[in-house]
Amino acid sequence: MCLGIPMRIVVRDGNDAVAESSSVRKRIRLDLLEDAAVGDYVLIHAGYAIERIDEREALETLDLIRRVYEAGRRDDPT
Predict the structure, then answer these.
(1) Could you give the domains of the chain?
(2) Mean pLDDT for the stretch of residues 15-27
């Protein structure tokens, strides 16, 4: 199974970009979404933006990822 992480594009230079989520910045490629712009939310997989998504969907997905992570930490016996 693959997991795409929602991030917001904060810098664009050709097909190179920087995306951010929760204060984490990552260099990404926009080869698959050449019309993506600064401010757009995109799904990132393996360093590539694979799909543009709206802000509401991005924030809901990030909240669900956070909840799963927190639940896993509570259930971890170590």
Answers:
(1) 5-75 (2.30.30.140)
(2) 96
